[in-house]
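From the shared-data thread, chain only:
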Amino acid sequence: MSALHIRPATIHDTETILRFVRDLAVYENAEQEVLSTPAHVHKTMFSEGATAHGLICEQDGRAIGFAVYFFNYSTWQGRNGLYLEDLYVDPAHRGSGAGKAILRHLARIAVEKDCGRFEWSVLDWNTPSIQFYDSLGAKPQSEWIRYRMTGQALHDLAQA
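Structure, as tokens:
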């Protein structure tokens, strides 16, 4: 098996990123929720002041996975954290070590940036991913309930 190469995503990876986003959404039974366009990716990941970052995992010069992450902040630690928004490896390449290599790369970024945390979310039914994360020593944070506001509720609150 040839070596894996992980590199920062560039604007030229836009279509690859969107393909992986759609593939991930299909896997998570949420394909209809994908609204992202090339313009969104350009603005949020590759424009001046962009706060989201991407990684592309390649094998033999072909993209086989990706990750999107951003930095958040912990007031309790007084330090930034790294939040992994998405991680996806093409099914044909699962078991190749790509997922672990991407997570290791992100952990290195977190350590280099003096982050106090490296966090992500996983769907409660995604047993293979949960077992994988457990095997790496990651711990679920069951005492927290994640909230989300979107659509009309978000607009209503903003206008209240």
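The longest strand covers residues 62-74.
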